[in-house]
Amino acid sequence: MMRPPLALVLGIGLLLAGCVSPSPYGYLVSGPVPPQMPERLAQETVARMEALYPPAHTRLALTHPATDAYGLALIEALRRKGYGVMESRVNTRMNPSTRDDMPVAMQPSVSHDAGLPFGYVVDGPFEPRLYRVTVFIGSQSLSRAYRMDEQAIAQAGAWVRKE
To answer: Residue of 19, 25, 107, 136 with fewest CB within 10 Å of its CB?
Structure first.
């Protein structure tokens, strides 16, 4: 009986481990995009959320740091509309054995009692010039595709809501 090579078994194991790892959140767009793209996507995201989640009655607790252009524009637009947004803070634990106090681990912390858990992913391009925005609100998500042509972004479909 022939046994598979160890490298093949390890490669398949690593591939499967990557499938169960938690997906990253945030702005994951690769390559150059127009500078107004994140702001426009944030405005459209908030307009859709407004139809489903009443601003004055909805509190959101961001589950990851929002340090990118889309995240900052999204938080600002949500607050302007009347949403309560609790931003994620990053806890750093210092390594006592080093003199320069470099952070060892960074873990976002947010109290889910402060509002609905909230996160986002902006990624792409898929195919030439196709991008996707997904926001996670509690156990639901909203997602929409966008196409960029000639440095202008346009909707490439309707918002999809997963309950």
So the answer is: 19
If one counts every other C-beta atom within 10 angstroms of the C-beta of residue 160, the result is: 11
Q: Which two tokens stand for residue 77?
A: 């637009």
Give φ, ψ of 21 to 5 degrees: -70, 145
Q: Which residues pair with 138 in a beta bridge?
A: none
Q: What is the pLDDT of residues 2-38, one digit of tens each?
A: 665 655 544 554 444 444 445 588 889 888 888 899 9
CB atoms within 10 A of CB 39: 17
Q: Where are the beta strands (DSSP E) in 8-115?
A: 26-29, 59-62, 84-86, 89-94, 103-109
> pTM here?
0.72
Q: What does residue 139 show for φ and ψ, rounded to 5 degrees? A: -100, 10
Q: Which residues, in sequence order, are bridge partners of residue 59?
A: 84
Residue type, 17: A
The one-letter code for the residue type at 47 is A
How distant is the alpha carbon of residue 28 from its chain centre?
8
